[in-house]
Amino acid sequence: MASRPGSGGGAPDAGDDAVTGSAVSVPLEDAGWDRLLRDVALGRLQLSLRTADGLQIALLAQPELQRLQAAAGESVAASARGNLSNREHEVLLLVADGLTSSQIAQQLGLAANTVAQHLHSARRKLGVKTTRAAVALVTQQGAQ
Questions:
Q1: What's domain 80-143's architecture?
Q2: What is the 3-state secondary structure (H, E, C) of 56-81?
Q3: pLDDT in tens, 108-132
Q4: What are the domain boundaries of the chain?
């Protein structure tokens, strides 16, 4: 569907591939791609294309993409701290400061296994696979 920003767009056709607007469905071969893509790039139009088998792609201007990415990043960073325990957050910050798990355990008076469990739990809560990614999320949040 093609829609003007903020217009809500229209429902896609169930038939052949088409560009659909709030009031019109245009076959792809007649769509005037240069004009459509120029309107998207200038921020005058957001395009959502759907194939007959339900695959969908959205085209939008670079500033809008950057705005959405920033909003998503802020949301992840804001929720990251809220999901972590104080100890998990503290351990991640100590990793960010360059301490090893053994050094963190010694500094906090914990067993090394407990530090490993805090790191594992933090990664799980943040939805990341590595401690490096968890540290990046927590330090990104702190920088905002």
A1: Orthogonal Bundle (1.10)
A2: EEEECCHHHHHHHHHHHHHHHHHHHH
A3: 999 999 999 999 999 998 888 999 9
A4: 2-60, 80-143
Q: What dihedral do alpha carbons 117, 123, 136, 61 form, nearest 10°?
A: -170
Residues 6+ apart with CB under 8 A from 74: 144
**Helical residues (DSSP H) of the chain, grouped into ranges:** 33-41, 62-83, 86-96, 101-108, 112-126, 131-143
Per-residue pLDDT at 13: 41
pLDDT over 70 at 81, yes or no: no
Show the tokens assigned to 112: 């090394």
pLDDT band at residue 22, thresholds of 50, 70 and 90?
very low
Choose between 45 and 80: higher pLDDT: 45
Distance CA 126, CA 137 (A): 8
Q: Return the amino acid letter for 131.
A: T
